[in-house]
Structures are given as C-alpha cells and as structure tokens.
Amino acid sequence: MAAAAAAAPQKELIRAQNGVYEVTKPLATGTFGSIYKAKRESDGKLFAVKCESLNMKSSLLRQMSVVLASIHYPSPFFATIEERGTVPQRFLFVVMPLYGDNLFDLMHNVNKDRKFSIATGLHLAEQTLTAIRDLHRNGFIHRDIKPSHFCIGRETEDQYHHVFLLDFGLCKRPRFGNKNNEAEEQMRKNAILYRGVVKYASVHAHQGKNLGYKDDMESWWYMVLEFFLGALPWALLNKESEQDVLHLKKRITAQMVSAVWKTTPETVPAFFELLHIVREPKDIAEFVDYDRIADHIQKLFEKSKANPQEPPDWDCMNDYKGPSYQQVPMIAPPEVGLKPENTEFGKNDPGPSAGGQQTSMEPVKSAEGNGQPKKKTKKKKSKSKGAKGKNRSVSEDEG
C-alpha cells in the first residue's frame, strides 16, 4: 500500500510571479506551442497556460506580449494576459483567462451541416469585425485571420455569446513607406514572415505583396463566407494548388456563390457588397470603412428575414445577448506608440516548479527548434510564381 502511494503521480505545477498553477489537461498543440488547462492553487480558478519552447527561433509569445502592451485603445474583444514567465532551459509561458470553444470547432460541431445559421453567422460577422477594427485602430495588422483564432466566452463567466480574438503572436505594424519610426520598423523586421493559410489568405498575400489593413478584412470576408457555406469554393485545394486558389479568389462572383448558398440565395448580392467595400482602399495604410460594413451586416438581417434575437446555434435555449457594433473614432496608426518595455519574460522567471517538483508537460517540438542540433540542409527554391524571396510564407494549416 505504501509503495502504491509512493508511486502516485506528482502534480504538474508551473510557478509564476503571482501564483502557482496546476496543469490539469492539454487543450491544443500546434506548430508554435501548446496550450494547457490549469487551476490556480490559491483560489481554484481555471486558466489557460500557453507554452512555447525556448528553442524557438522566433517567439510568438514575446511578440504577443509586446503587441498587448502596446494597445493604446483597449478592446473588450481582445484576449488578455494574466501573467507570464519562464521555466529555465525549457519554455516560456503566458497565463490567460480560460475561454470557450473556438469558432472553427463550433462551426463543425454544433450543426449537422457544419455551418452556422444566418442569424448566428451575422452576429459572429459583427463581433469579429469589431475585434479586427479595434486591432487596426491600435496600428497592428493580424495576418492570420481564421475561425480558430476567435472563441466564445464561458457560460459560467456570463460571456457565452461574446467573441474574443485570441492570438496576437503574428501581428505586426504595416510598413507605410517612410512613416514608421525606428522602434516600429525594428518590430516589423523582427515579426515572423507569415502571411496566413491558403484558405483565408488575401490576394496580396498569395502574391507576396506588402500587407495592410484591407488584407485582414479580406481574410475576414472569406471566413464569414465559410460560416454560411460550411466550406469555401476552394476548400479542397491545397498549398500545391495555391495558384488555382488565387485564380478563384480574384474571380469569385455572386453567381458562383449563389449556386451553393442554399438557405437564402437572395442575400448573396448584398453579401458581395461587403467584399467590394473591403477591397476599396487603394493604399495599404488606408483603413477599411468598418462602419459601412457594420451597416451592411444589419441590412443583411433584414434581407434574410433573420431574427436578431434568435438564440445562437450553441445556446439554443437563450436569446442572443452578445455585444453590438459601436462606432469609434479612427486615428492614423503612426500616432500610436509601441511599448516594448516591461514585456521581458526573464524578469519574472519562476525557477523550478513549486515544491521542487518539475513540470513534465512540454510545449510541442517545433520545426524551428526541438532541443537537438540542426542539420544543415539546402533550401529549396520556391517555384510559385507569386512568391518573392523570404516574404513568401503561406501556410497549409487551416485549423
């Protein structure tokens, strides 16, 4: 009996500056790290702990910390960081509030046809629009807009109908000719060269061009279109067929979408007006007309005869009570300063986990660093016609 008790598994603990967190279960793993559900020992409150190997060549968690520290205009649609730290010689981590399901999982699991109802899709379009607008208002582009980077709140926190933007690790300042100051230009250069996934990438991203605010919004439009169709017209094409995807995106028409938009095909022309608004700006430094897009979303409610009070698809017993779009003044991004100070993970290194116990959980081993010496390999030249040097990086990961 004593031997069995001695063999009992130890708790997996992470000690941060302001608390000790017991890791309870893995939530997700990806190319750039892992996320775990954790319980704060002092009060039992649940959090999400995002971990990233110290061997990563470019740190998304550091970038995320700089971006959120530089937010001049706070937004209720942004995920937040409770605290951050380092487990020496192993990984960086950030402690964040625990949110609900992401929109990709909701879309595929809530309804049998793997798409949202019109009312739910329009409400999600409105909230995700607001989140992206608020990010742009602070002078950042996201570069990886997709359903899995948005999630709903938790029912126990009374945020079950509220949408949050989760991931800021790939954000950067757009390059506006000579307008960027030295700190902004350095941050832009340090940002990971990434242009999104094939399914949602903008036309400019496929072409390897400099990206601006309208490129995020073009990705947003593809995401919202998927909310209603369940699958985009190019969903079956992969990265090897990227030029075909680009061809479809450049030539997509209301007639093409009407053929597969079975529920309310009469709303398709009005929905395409959103794409025209998104693509209106001629300069990457120009904001999209977010207010006009929000107004068109309200008109889509009327055209589709959808009830704005209809319960969301994941909470069919309660009327919708999520936040609505509110107009805000937009300013020129160069007026918003960076605040990279006080975002260093090393300033609150926790050392060994509490009680002398080491955590056994590890962030996912990335292609950029897995703790082993790298073998030198010859880099293959990209054959894609739309690519130019190191600016070329459109991922096939669509999750």
Automatic annotation (TrEMBL):
SMART domains: S_TKc. Residues 21-288 form the Protein kinase domain. It comes from the Eukaryota. It holds the Pfam family Pkinase. Residues 373-391 have a biased composition (Basic residues). GO terms for molecular function: ATP binding; protein kinase activity. PROSITE patterns: PROTEIN_KINASE_DOM (PS50011). Residues 303-399 are annotated as: Disordered. PANTHER family: CASEIN KINASE-RELATED (PTHR11909). This is Protein kinase domain-containing protein.
